[in-house]
Amino acid sequence: MHLAIWNIRGFHKSSKHKIVKEFIQEYHLSFLALLETKLSESKLQFISRKITTNWQWNSNVQEAKNCRIWILWDNDIINVHIIKSSEQFLTCSIESKDGKISCFCTIVYALNQQINRRSLWNDLLEFKHNVNCPWLIGGDFNSIISSEEKIGGLPVTEAETFTSNQVDYLMPGCFDHSPALLTIGDDIIEGKKPFKFYNMWVKHPDFLKTVSSIWDQDIHGYMMFKLHTKLKKLKPALKELNKKYFMDISEQVLRSKKELADIQRAKINWGIHGDKSSHFFHSVMKNKRHHNRIMTLYDRAGNRLTEMSDIVSEFLDFYKNLLGTSTSTLLPDPEVISNGPLLSPDHRNMLSSPVTREEIKQAVFSIPNEKSPGPDGFSAYLFKASWSIIEEELYEAIEEFFNSGKLLGTFNSTAITLIPKVLNPQNATDFRPIACYDILLFGKADMSSITRLNECLMEFSQVSGLEPNPAKCSVFLSGIDEVLKAQICSYLKFSEGVLPLRYLGVPLITKRLSWLDCSPLISRISSQFQNWQNNKTLSYAGRLQLIKSVILGIQMFWTSNYILPIKVLEKIDKMCVDFLWGHKMHLVAWSAICQDHKQGGLGVYSAKFWNFASAAKLLWMIHNKKDIMWIKWIHGNYLRQNNVWQVQNRKSDSWMWKQILKVRDLLSLKFGSIDNMLSVINNCCTGDNFSISAMYKRLNQQVPSTISGTIWGGWHYPKHSFILWLASISRLLT
Description:
Strand content: 5-15%
Structural class: alpha+beta
Number of strands: 20
Strand order of the largest sheet: 3-4-2-1-10-9
Helix content: 40-55%
């Protein structure tokens, strides 16, 4: 079922009537909400007949001078009942006549002034207490949550019982507002349902018997073929096991009785594991099933696709064209290889030595049981649980591969996982396979250098079979005139790029990193907190774990590449502390929270100090990792005959290099001298690795706490440990 909301900024002109009528027909709408119509009550009936056929309608014209909100619906498909309306909203119930959809719907057209919108929020909050089913809220709120909404809007939150829904913001046409097209439907899975191995099966007494019954069969052929065939035959046998013992009604009744007795234990389980960084915790907090569905797509001709078969065909055609066809390749030039890094004789002997069965077993058993399965649906747990039965044929199949160098096609397949590259993906080009990588090439901006670089790129293509896609390639130029720019772009057949751009999620810039450059980082963290804020059952301990396990991971990628502005780091810390305390009174200062457990804190990493620790790693790498290309460039352009501990910045140096040296000086001041700083850095190294967390602890070191083991040790409930921690520092409210 398709619903739409559109701010049309006046609806008197016949040209607009025609556009809306065609819009209803093109997208097969069952419900349409028009905002800011500026129509009097006497004109509503007349215009409704022009744009629809036998549709019913209602409006808030009684509450507003001119109709601000007008809803129309196809009474043959849905029933709509008005619940409440005001100058700023209209709330109704929607029930589809096939019984599949039942929800509340509130259409909003908020007033311009913030003070006038307060009554809207109060009314919505009041109505929320009466909501016990899915509730759709949409319209023009005359306010935004983040800057990203300015270029496409915020996707509709997934409803509780709507298994499939998606919102598209279409082109505005002659209007200055984009219509929001909402699609609600059933979670229909087309095609053959893929096999999935469930780890619970291995616990059944008949599991090993089932595996053994298949493995005892005599299969002729190569060892890899025999292994593949037996795994294929095992699938229906395991499905039968599942059907017989895990889906039987009588057994389900018995299990249900046991589950009823286990309800209290389940509550205890949440208390122990729910606030920890566990698979159980994150499976409860994360529900992204809806976001893995693509319900609409636009093809290369601009046609909107809603049928799943058409969407699948569009992706298949796109990637067939993108990946190309098989072609002959040239052999690598031995001279090129010999001029690069080479393996030592010991390394060559080690790599060419036969793979032992102990190595095979170690590799299989090193894979976590919960690791995502391959296209065949089997996880590593199958092989571990039935090792005594299948090990011999598994050994022989792997040994056959290493001896022959040939791999059976079915084992050499994978599933392509698509990741959106933009906020609201619409075309196949807006997605990228999860394994795709970008390449950056650097050169002088003259035709001689560009020609040589292009020749190397073409030679690489001839040897590897990989070719650059001109539609996805750009050339960035500086310090040359427009004529030479045009000549280079024409020769390469690449478009000219403009800085700044985002590469692997972070901005590439040539100047000072500003707050605006970091806005994607701030927005991503903020959106995470907004999603979690809706979960009223989160304890302080649960909030703490989300900060430690998720937010640190988001900011670490940025802080490992840049020294962020202090205002950005302070903003991240403020968002974290506000989320921890629920925007209420802060019971403990953030500086104390960011101490290690042994120092009486909560073990959270402050963004500010973590960024300094990450910068210390950059200094260490510049001093020690001189074989890395970008560090070679640093030594050639900035250091020359100096070292990073003594060199002084110059006026012509880049902002980033000046920031690195600024952190160096701050660290030297923190630890008393350059020699002391070097000693601390060396103590943070283990072998050839630098520990950022170890440096962080040195930067944020405090007096140890004498009771940290009592609070955080053992199998304590995280919630109870948090309360005990508050009590130990006299911050527990009573």
